[in-house]
Amino acid sequence: MDPLARRKLGRTNVEVTQLGLGGAGLGDLFDMVDDADASATLRAAWDAGIRYYDTSPWYGRGQSEHRFGRALYRRPRADYVISTKVGRLFRACHDAEHFEHGFWRGGLKFEHRFDYSYDGVMRSFEDSLQRLGLPRIDLLLIHDLDISHHATEAKVTAYLTELHNGGFRALMDLKRSGLIRGIGAGINETGMMPRFLELMDIDFFLVALPYTLLDTDVLDAEFPQCAARGVGFIIGAPFASGILATGAVQGARYRYAEATPEVMAKVKRIEAVCARHNVPLAAAALQFPLGHSSVAAVIPGALLPEHVTRNVAAFRHAIPAEFWAELKHEGLLRADAPVP
Length: 340
Description:
This protein is of the alpha/beta class. The protein has one domain: Alpha-Beta Barrel (TIM Barrel). The protein is built from twelve helices and 14 strands. It has helices at residues 35-47, 63-72, 118-132, 147-150, 153-176, 192-199, 222-228, 243-246, 261-277, 281-287, 305-316, 321-329; strands at 6-8, 15-17, 21-22, 52-54, 81-86, 88-92, 110-114, 139-142, 182-187, 204-207, 232-235, 253-254, 257-258, 295-298. The strands form four sheets. Strands 3-4-5-8-9-10-11-14 form an eight-stranded parallel beta sheet. A two-stranded antiparallel ribbon has the order 1-2. A two-stranded antiparallel sheet has the order 6-7. Helix 2 (63-72) links the parallel strand 4 (52-54) and strand 5. Helix 1 (35-47) crosses helix 2 (63-72) and helix 9 packs antiparallel against helix 12 (321-329). The radius of gyration is 19 Å and the shape is globular.
């Protein structure tokens, strides 16, 4: 499969390379990444021909956007696509010695609050432009509006209302003005896509976890509902937080946590099929989502240049049809899952 081939994304006129680069890792998600390694990783992605880059203010509390901006702001702006996100606003922490990094191993010392209002979205957009050092952003996404981040249904409903009444109008104004070219939403869990579709005209979803070689429940209703409306997908976590890259090794991560024995057992069975067909597990994980006609790209992260090189090689690895057929025959992949 050609990582540099381009696909049109959903209801936008934007074409992205099938293989992109996700920016959470370069925000110091699981490991601290020094600036030299981050710069070398982004340069390796560019040199490999990757031309779709995704980041967020949340990734390292601004760290990822700064790093992507330094790598891209001197590149010809028409040559690449970049996406970032809205939903959080940041302010300096004046007690830096006692700052709690929380979710991030490193990153910058900024406090945040959620804000999906008109003014909040506009300020988030302007802040991102400054961190990136760019005059415009191609794709802007609503970030982390779900139960896993807000804990209660009441909060989710309140923020959806705030978004519907204000923030989405800001996104539409930015799109009409040509400052962005598409509106998306990041999805971490099933059940949220229909709620967005009921309230607003989304162009695409960035699906972080619900669609991987291990998780395909969205094929039941959510993906068909989106496809019927022309809504496209970017797959943001093709390695399911790591286990589909590392395999079932001790400490392997699945959905941001240590993999359970059940998940480890399933991955070991998939690895056995991979071995019989000489298919690297990472190659299967990266290529599988592109079997769906509405998926435009997968965007694995990378912390070092060799990670980029390895992902490109895995994406190019030829996978025989018999491999996918055996996964389905063994009950490791549902029979109706579209495959490349």
